[in-house]
Every structure is written in C-alpha cells, then in structure tokens.
Amino acid sequence: MDLSPPPQNSQNENFLVVDIERFRGPLDLLLHLIRQQDIDIFEIPISKITRQFLSALTDIGENQINNAGEFMEMAANLLRIKAQMLLPSSVVSEDEDPRAELVYRLLEYEQIQEIKAHLSLAESQRSRQFGKGYVVPRSQRAKKETVLETQWHEVYDAAASMVVPSMDFVEHRVTTRLVAMEDKVDLILLTLQNLKRVRFSKLLEPFESKMHGVMTFLASLELARNRKVKLRQTEKFSELWMYRYVENIPVEVDTNSGEE
Amino acid sequence: MRATQIVEAVLFSSDAPVNAEEIARADDSLNEDVVEKAIKELGRIYEESERAFEIKSLGGGYQIITLPVYATYLDRFDTVAKSSRLSGPALETLAIIAYRQPIGRIDIEYVRGVSSAGVVRTLQDRELVDVVGRGEGLGRPLLYGTTNKFLEHFGFSKIEDLPRKDDLPVVLKGENITEAMPENTEVGSSQKNQTSSNKNRETENDLPVSPSLAD
Predict the structure, then answer these.
(1) What residues of chain B lie within 8 A of the CB of A105, using their CB?
(2) Which of A108, A133, A136 sits opposite B172 (nearest CB)?
(3) Minimal Cα distance from A132: which residue of B?
(4) What is the pLDDT along chain A (260 residues), one digit of tens a residue?
(5) pLDDT score recorded for residue A173
(6) What is the CATH code for B3-74?
C-alpha cells in the first residue's frame, strides 16, 4: 500500500472555508473536509487534511472553548498518524495502515448519521398518529380575539404621537447599557415618594429614545414583582398607571381625573 | 361476552400500549393466542368499516391510535397528546445505543467524538434508554440499552424493525474493520422480554436485543 500522501492541490485548499461552529464535533468536521474534496476515505492524505483541520481550529471562538478539547484531541491523533506513516516500513508492519482506525471511526460515524436520519423519519411518521389522551390547554384566554373598538380620532391621535425617525444619516455604533434599568427603578421610586400614582407616559416625557420606554417598562415590571408598585390599566392599549404599593388596600382606578 | 369485545374494551380504555399477556388478565377465557387473534379480528373490522384509527403494535404492546391521514385535523387541537421531538444529538446518541447496546458512555463518546454525559442523561430521563448492566472494564462502567418506550416513540414493534446495518448505503468494509465490529448479540431470549409488561419496562431483563449487525 502506498502510504505517501498524494501531491497537494494547494489551489483547492484556498477555496476551503470552514465555519467551525457548524460542526457538532471533530468527526463531523473531518468528514466534511473529506467529502467536500471528494477524497477517497481509504486513501486520506493525512498531512493535507491535518493542515486544513488545524486551520479550521484557529477559528474556534471563546464561547466554543469547552468543545475545543475534543477538536484538539483529534488534531493530536492526526499528527500521530502522520508520524507513524513517516516511519520506515521496517518498523511498522507492511499491512497495517496507521489510518485504519480513523477510517473505521469515520465510516462508523457516517453510518450513525444514516441511522439517525432513519430514526428522525420514523419519529416524524409516528408523530402523525395519536393515542388517547387529553392535555389541559395552557390558556384559553390567549386564544380570545381582542375586539379593537376605535374611533377615527383615536387613530389620528395615535398616528400623530408617533415619533418620525430622522432621515439624517445615522452612524451605527454598538453601545451597551445606554439606559440602565436600575436608573429607571430609582426614578419610579423617587417619583412615587411624592405622588400616589403616576402615568407611565409621564415618566417618559423628558426622554426621546425608545430605549427609555423599554427600560422604564422593565423597571416597572420588576418593581411590581417585588411588590414595590402596583400597575393598573383600565383596558387594553390604554394608559398604564403606576401606584405606590400599599398592603392589602385595593387601588381604585380613576381615569377621569388628570395626573397629580 | 365475546373475547374480541373484551380485548377491544381493554385497548380502548388504555392510553399506552398494552401487551397480549396483560390483556389476557382481563378474563379467564383469554390467553395470549386468543388475544392476538382478537386483535387481528378487530384490525380487520376497523379497516373494513373505515374507522379513523387502527391497532398498532408498539414496543411489544398494542395501542389504538389514529391513522396518519387525520393528523392535519388533530394538529389544530392543543388538547391532543403529542410527544415532543428529539434533538439532533439525542437522535445520534440513540442511534448508537440502539445498534451497539449494551454500550457504555465512553464508547458512545468515542463513536460521536464529543462528550455525551448530558445527552445520555436526557435520554434516560425520557425513559428512552436505561441502564441494563455493567461492563467488565475499569470501574465497571454502566451500560445502556433502549427501552420499550424507545420503540413506542419511533413506532417500532420490536428492535428488529430498525433497518439492518448492512442495508444502509454506508457499509463498513475491509478486513481490519470487520474484525472490529461489535459481536452479534444473542437473539434467542428476545421474544419473551418483548412481551413483558409495560410496567416492568425499566427492569434489567427487559433489555431489547440489538438487530444483527454486519456479518
């Protein structure tokens, strides 16, 4: 058996783009490299494949570091096979290809993928047949249709209150935590020290960015969960009110009077 | 009361597969042969009268389930009991266990090339695999095998319903390779175990036998 790797096709390698995150493990990656280049699995050019395998490893991100060990083990394995192949044939017995075990693993892995596909098909066919049983529905309320009773002037008001996004050139820059939820928590608590209740939109008035609305809403949910405030809304899509939390005293909703 | 009706009543009232031995407990006039005959008879009646359901052999037991063609209608109800689909890694691990059982975690990981403790645990929690013994090696590792629930989940009657390895497009070949193939598991004791009660499906002697592997 000729153990020397066939001449390398470096042109081919340049086109090889491997997205390591796509692979479920070293065998998956190795098999992909072999299949993509139409390599005969019984005549794997170990040095070429090892080089490609190692270059794919450099892309492993920090979030993948847990899986990196498995890829590294395979890389070491490939290098060991290459080293064995370089030994003079008097040291290694003629009929024992150092690649045999790897070939077997790859074929077994590929076969398992076929069985897996077969199981997946069987599962999907089985899932079309149902036995007896009753599952309590999670929530019927979510299924109810919401009738939106709206008058024309309300639609007009809603449209008028929309913030038209600026058409100016916007430089896209990724920044984090422009608006902190903790600040909004403080703002709500501070406001409710002086007032018994406050409109949600009142808290947003000084700010422009949508992120303030999102964070204020999250803060109010958090405070409600911790029983610091109560949230009330008379009907869907109407103004949200925040009340100072008072133990066991139901808060009355009064939508007619303005805010304090 | 005719045997057929008694069998039908038992099947109708059950929401999981029941095996012939268990059904036969319903009446002194019944035995496994009578039950099997009654099930065939019922199957014929359902087919002739175009019922929306059939009696299917699942994991060694029998269950009345709807015909696949009605799935589109039943999909509209949240109240229909549906089983959740398995993830890719879970299917891959199950495939290995199904064909190589009894097999330890280390061997599973060797075939997959990735660590598999979590996924094996998930499969065990879903009762699709179970510990069926201990290996000879260092530390006497736990060995896993598939359960009747595995067969039910995929709609198989018995483990032999899975495709034979040498029927698959990729066949392991070469001299070194055949030697490395796992030993064929004894098939003799399978029949009795297949029909044992569903309640006992976790027990150790309920180990389904792997299909014959490439010779």
Answers:
(1) 110-111, 113
(2) A108
(3) B15
(4) 444 444 444 444 445 566 666 778 889 889 888 888 888 888 888 888 888 888 887 766 665 666 678 888 888 989 988 888 888 766 656 567 788 888 889 999 998 999 999 999 999 999 999 998 888 877 655 556 667 777 888 888 888 887 776 666 666 666 665 778 888 888 888 888 888 888 888 888 888 777 888 888 989 998 888 888 888 888 777 888 888 887 655 544 444 444 43
(5) 66
(6) 1.10.10.10
Helices B88-100 & B105-112 angle (0-180, nearest 10):
120
The answer to whether residue B16 neighbours chain A at the CB level (below 8 Å) is yes
- pTM (two decimals): 0.61
Tokens of A23: 């692979």
All structural domains of chain B with their residue ranges? 3-74, 88-206
CATH topology agreement for domains B3-74 and B88-206:
yes
Angle at A25 between CA A16 and CA B120, to 5 degrees: 160
Which domains occur in chain A, in start order? 10-115 (no CATH), 176-260 (1.10.10.580)
Average pLDDT over residues B202-212: 39
Q: Which of A105, A107, A116 would you mutate first to test chain B, the one with the most B CBs within 10 A?
A: A116
Q: Give the chain A residue nearest B115 (alpha carbons).
A: A70
Q: What is the CATH number of domain B88-206?
A: 1.10.10.10
Query: Could you tell me the CA-to-CA distances from A40 to A31, A51, A108, A200 in Å, in that order?
Result: 11, 17, 15, 68
Whole-angstrom Cα distance, residue A65 to residue A70?
Answer: 10
Mutation site for B-interface testing, chosen from A126, A136, A140 by largest number of B Cβ within 10 Å: A126
What are the distances in angstroms from CA B211 to CA A123, A210, B173, B181?
A: 19, 61, 18, 13
What does the DSSP 8-state code read for residue A206? T
